[in-house]
Amino acid sequence: MWEEAAGGGSVTLLCLTASSGVPLYCRSRGGSAKQQQLPFSVIGSLNGVHMFGSNLEVLLTAAATENTRVMWKVFHNSITLIVLSSDEGTSDFSLGRLLDNVFNAMVSS
């Protein structure tokens, strides 16, 4: 997945606390050479959409716009990982695997 981003698309990974949405880290790869971190308002909106749905017992796992795919995943009711990809060939399966691998890398000893 990270290697594919070098082909023109970009991938951004966000890690937030599940209960309050406080950002823990944000990592990006690909895209323009001067890639900037996402504004806090965008991070808050992405998390807010997911939290709003979960409060209504709606499971929002993925969404797509014309040029970006977004996937959310909550791990152990404590960590929310969000990935955004602008690569046209990205599938929900590959984004889900990326989120699983990132979380496993965070918690493995």
Poorly predicted runs are: 1-6
Instruction: Give the terminus-to-terminus CA distance.
Output: 23 Å
Looking at the structure, what is the overall shape? globular
Radius of gyration, in Å, reads 13 Å
* Average predicted confidence as pLDDT: 85
| CATH 2nd-level architecture | 2-Layer Sandwich
Q: Helical segment tally?
A: 3
Classification by helices and strands: alpha+beta
CATH fold name:
Beta-Lactamase
The H/E string reads: HEEHEEEH
Assembly annotation: single chain
Give the strand order of the largest sheet, numbering strands 1, 2, ... along the chain: 2-1-5-4-3
Tell me the helix content: 25-40%
Q: What is the CATH C-level name?
A: Alpha Beta
Task: Please outline the major beta sheet.
Answer: 5 strands, antiparallel
Q: Tell me the domain tally.
A: 1
Strand runs, count: 5
Approximate strand percentage: 25-35%
In words, what does this structure look like?
This protein is an alpha+beta fold. It has a single domain, classed as Beta-Lactamase (2-Layer Sandwich), CATH 3.30.450. The protein contains three helices and five strands. A five-stranded antiparallel beta sheet has the order 2-1-5-4-3, with helices on both faces. Strand 4 and strand 5 (79-85) form a beta hairpin. The longest helix has 16 residues, at 40-55. The protein is globular and about 35 Å long. The two termini are 23 Å apart. The relative contact order is 0.23. The model is unreliable at 1-6 (pLDDT under 50).
